[in-house]
DNA sequence: TAGATTGTTAATCGATTAACAATC
DNA sequence: TAGATTGTTAATCGATTAACAATC
């Protein structure tokens, strides 16, 4: 397995990495030790050429005439995705969604752990929710820096999103998983990934409507 | 404002429609009654040519030399996105995440309403959570059909995902917003939109790591 | 009419996929 | 060696964007 040094990974490829990684672990758990791109294609519903191309960005991970060694590639992706070491993230906004995500066991399957939460409501702060201490907003910078947290899950109400994002940037955070429908303005070196639940539902409903109209013709 | 009859809307465009719609409503609330593609571009961080192209798939929504009439286009998108009439959806799996989504006020800003929930746990069923009745799984088909529900939010544990999806398809559901990390196997006329929270976090962490490595060079 | 801005043509970019030579 | 499957070249597809004629 020869790895590549120079790496410009297309975004589309990067987004599929967790998928590959998860399935390789499933295979590994099942005791399978080799897999080829057609089987992967079948299981993941991704064209086999796309899979080979994706893998090839990282070097020659496979063996011609054989396929891929499940454990090798799994371990390679674990390292690539930083899953070989614990990543602590914080969560800001312990409302409905925030609470649910606190309880969501990210670390059950991955080495991601929510190690601190923050909220502006004094009824909530000072407690430990599901093993995670909930701090006041004024402790944000201190805790983020003390715990060397680089990634934050943002589940505050929409109208607070930008001002909290500013505080996060000030505290040194570089990655924000944004659950508000607000477009955050941040410096270029901060990566914002947005999950807009209403958008997802609306798009789904739109696709459905279109399919329906198509069907009526 | 001339609308188009024939419509093959690119997927990328479709996914931006809720964004446009939301922002047009914001403008409308602010009492603004005209907008042009550069201003939209500025606010939404989408190239103005992309915006004009997106809009043009739906006909000639604007006026040359003038821009777009906010109310007109807003209303047009409301119809396009089915937001001019109530859409009832169901939710299956009232665990942590399901509970949070039940309380998530989709209908506060849009005409989407969770009108029924289902769970397999008898401790939960039979109650009304946040105004939404929680039924047993055995009532699924009956309720889905009685309430003419076409879209379901799926927040069950991963291992139950496929079997529940089968039941949903059997009940006549055509759209599933899937929060499990499982790839669902469904007939061609069923649209599955997946939201994989762990994936999002892992991808974000990966991008960050890459940026960091880049920076070190 | 003069100025502004659309809607669209053409160019470009990025992602997917078919096909196959390289090679284990 | 023969058979299998990778890694990659070339073709295709879909999305974005620059540039501008059309036109309000």
Structure keywords:
homodimer, 217 residues, alpha/beta, Arc Repressor Mutant, subunit A, Rossmann fold, 2 domains, seven-stranded mixed sheet, two-stranded antiparallel sheet, 9 helices, globular, DNA-binding
Q: How would you characterize this protein structure?
A:
The structure is a homodimer of 217-residue chains. With 217 residues, chain A is α/β, with parallel strands linked by helices. Chain A has two domains: 2-80, Winged helix-like DNA-binding domain superfamily/Winged helix DNA-binding domain (Arc Repressor Mutant, subunit A, Orthogonal Bundle); 87-199, Rossmann fold (3-Layer(aba) Sandwich), CATH 3.40.50.720. Helices cover 45% and strands 19% of the residues of chain A. Chain A has a seven-stranded mixed β-sheet with strand order 7-8-6-5-9-10-11, sandwiched between helices. The first copy, chain A, has a two-stranded antiparallel sheet with strand order 1-3. In chain A, strand 7 and strand 8 form a beta hairpin. In chain A, helix 1 crosses helix 4 (70-80), helix 2 crosses helix 3 and helix 7 (140-146) crosses helix 8. The mean pLDDT of chain A is 94. The interface between A and B is large, with 56 and 57 residues. Chain A binds a DNA duplex (24 and 24 nucleotides) through helix 1 and helix 3.
Question: What topology emerges from the helices and strands here?
Answer:
Two copies of one chain form a homodimer.
Chain A: E1 2-3, H1 11-29, E2 34-35, H2 37-44, H3 48-56, E3 59-60, E4 68-69, H4 70-80, E5 87-92, H5 96-103, H6 106-109, E6 112-119, E7 128-129, E8 132-136, H7 140-146, E9 151-154, H8 161-171, E10 175-178, E11 191-194, H9 197-216
Parallel strand pairs in A: 5-6, 5-9, 6-8, 9-10, 10-11
Antiparallel strand pairs in A: 1-3, 2-4, 7-8
The structure holds a DNA duplex (24 and 24 nucleotides).
């Amino acid at each position: 397995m020869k790895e590549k040094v120079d790496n410009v990974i297309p975004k589309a490829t990067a987004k599929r990495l967790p998928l590959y990684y998860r399935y390789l672990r499933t295979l590994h758990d099942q005791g399978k030790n080799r897999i080829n791109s057609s089987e992967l294609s079948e299981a993941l519903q991704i064209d086999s050429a796309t899979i080979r191309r994706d893998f090839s960005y990282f070097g020659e991970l496979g063996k011609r005439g054989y396929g891929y060694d499940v454990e090798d590639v799994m371990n390679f992706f674990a390292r690539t995705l930083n899953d070989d070491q614990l990543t602590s993230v914080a969560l800001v906004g312990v409302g409905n969604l925030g609470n649910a995500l606190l309880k969501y066991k990210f670390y059950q399957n991955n080495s991601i752990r929510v190690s601190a939460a923050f909220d502006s409501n004094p009824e909530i702060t000072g407690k430990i929710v599901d093993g995670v201490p909930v701090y006041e907003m004024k402790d944000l910078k201190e805790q983020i820096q003390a715990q060397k947290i680089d990634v934050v899950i943002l589940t505050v109400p929409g109208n607070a999103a930008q001002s909290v994002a500013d505080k996060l940037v000030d505290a040194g955070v570089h990655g924000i998983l944004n659950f508000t429908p607000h477009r955050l303005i941040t410096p270029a070196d901060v990566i914002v990934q947005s999950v807009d639940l209403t958008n997802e539902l609306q798009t789904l409903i739109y696709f459905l409507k279109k399919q329906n109209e198509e069907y009526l013709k």
